[in-house]
Inverse folding.
């Protein structure tokens, strides 16, 4: 299976990646080389090989998800790159009925 430039461009669009023509050519070559490598695995006789699922068997410790009030909201708000008054501005990633993406910024979190 090989992918063409249109396939890779569509994947990049879905991932919201902008590729130059040179980057697109490189991405097509990279992905097709990877797919060829995966196809070579099909030629191997693996019927006596145990399935391999996870290399790491230790359970990752997680902290409890407990809501907390930050002691100083001003420190956090000072990290924002775009703001509208006391709000964070984040890009809106919504498509309309015809597929046009709106990447305008809207306030998302108040302080």
């Amino acid at each position: 299976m090989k992918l063409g430039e249109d396939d890779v461009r569509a994947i990049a669009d879905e991932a919201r990646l902008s590729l130059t023509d040179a980057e697109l050519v490189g991405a097509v070559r990279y992905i097709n080389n990877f797919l060829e490598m995966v196809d070579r695995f099909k030629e191997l006789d693996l019927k006596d090989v145990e399935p391999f699922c996870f290399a790491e068997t230790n359970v990752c410790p997680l902290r409890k998800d407990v809501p907390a009030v930050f002691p100083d909201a001003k420190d956090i708000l000072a990290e924002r790159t775009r703001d509208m008054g006391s709000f964070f501005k984040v890009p809106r990633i919504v498509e309309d009925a015809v597929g046009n993406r709106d990447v305008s910024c809207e306030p998302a979190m108040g302080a």
User: Anything to note?
Assistant: Strands lie at 83-84, 87-91, 94-95, 101-102, 105-110. The first strand starts at residue 83 and ends at 84. The two ends are 51 Å apart (CA to CA).
